[in-house]
Amino acid sequence: MLLDVRQIASFADYFVIASAMNPRQARALVETLSKELRGEGIRPRQEGPVDSGWVLLDYGAIIVHIFSPEMRAFYGLEELWEAATPVVLVQ
């Protein structure tokens, strides 16, 4: 899910909220994003280890949240940021 949070948040423009079915998939997502964007000279600040159920990659204007299904349901960012404008929703 890609949310446009520009109208309601001063610290970011977009949130990407994704699910990884297991730590291996989360690690692959983090590594792929980091590798691809590093080639563009972009390096994130990472919060949380990949096996924690929630990894946050802070790219400044874009914040990527990678959740396990259980943690995504528990934290409910979609509901917390329901005033944001959905840009892309993939299921």
Structure commentary:
With 91 residues, this protein is of the alpha+beta class. It has one domain (2-8, 17-79): Beta Polymerase, domain 2. It contains 3 helices and 6 strands. The protein has helices spanning 23-38, 69-75, 77-80, and strands at 2-4, 14-19, 45-47, 54-58, 62-67, 85-88. The protein has a 6-stranded mixed sheet with strand order 3-4-5-2-1-6. The longest helix has 16 residues, at 23-38. The chain is globular and about 30 Å long. The termini are close together. The model has no long low-confidence stretch (mean pLDDT 94).
- Give the helix/strand class: alpha+beta
Helix tally equals 3
Please give the order of strands in the largest beta sheet.
3-4-5-2-1-6
How many whole angstroms does the radius of gyration measure? 13 Å
The largest β sheet comes out as: 6 strands, mixed
In total, how many domains does the architecture comprise? 1
**What's the name of the CATH homologous superfamily?**
Beta Polymerase, domain 2
Features:
about 90 residues, alpha+beta, Beta Polymerase, domain 2, 6-stranded mixed β-sheet, 3 helices, 6 strands, about 30% helix, globular
